[in-house]
Amino acid sequence: MRPKENLDELTEDLVQVDGIHKNHSSEFGYSKIHVIQEGKVKTVDRQIKVEDLERIVQQTRFKKFDRITTGFGSQVYDSQHSIGYGVKGCALLFEVNRNYVDHIWFDYYPTADKTENLDEIFEYIFEISKKWNLILVDWNQEVIVDSQNRQTLINYLKGEFEN
Q1: CA 92 from chain center: how many Å?
Q2: Is residue 136 within 8 Å of residue 129, measured between CB atoms?
Q3: 114 pLDDT exceeds 60?
Q4: What angle do CA 78, 82, 83 make, to 5 degrees?
Q5: Model confidence pLDDT, tens digit, residues 24-67
Q6: What phi and psi, each to the nearest 5 degrees, are found at residue 120?
Q7: How many CB atoms lie within 10 A of CB 15?
Q8: pLDDT tens digits along 83-99
Q9: What strand order describes the sheet that includes 134-138?
């Protein structure tokens, strides 16, 4: 999730990512990369306190993960500054810098699973988006979701969106 003020930059990043997927991919990977920058407004600039974000997510049935890992293949290690709530494949994760949230990730694949927790997911993503003026960016589906718009967010969560 990213600050809404970065919409233009994020839109351009998606164009770059789409071009790489279409023109620089093979069965072996990609021949070009695009580094997505933080943006002119950073999430940490919102001064989202960890306890404020946790308070929202704790209102759901989602449980806090005991451990967050990052990496790929055999290179997996603990992420010491990350907190997460949910279940595998459907979770809200955030990175903490001192007492403030530095980054927010929503781990969800809308076209793969019609989860029974859709209402709860909607409520906390919608509330977080509204409270801190954030939008959801799905780099895998190559779509930017105005998660402050109820119908747009519901459509995304149901896998009903255009990229």
Answers
A1: 7
A2: yes
A3: no
A4: 115
A5: 888 888 888 888 888 999 999 999 999 999 999 998 888 999 99
A6: -70, -40
A7: 12
A8: 999 887 788 999 999 89
A9: 2-3, 134-138, 143-145
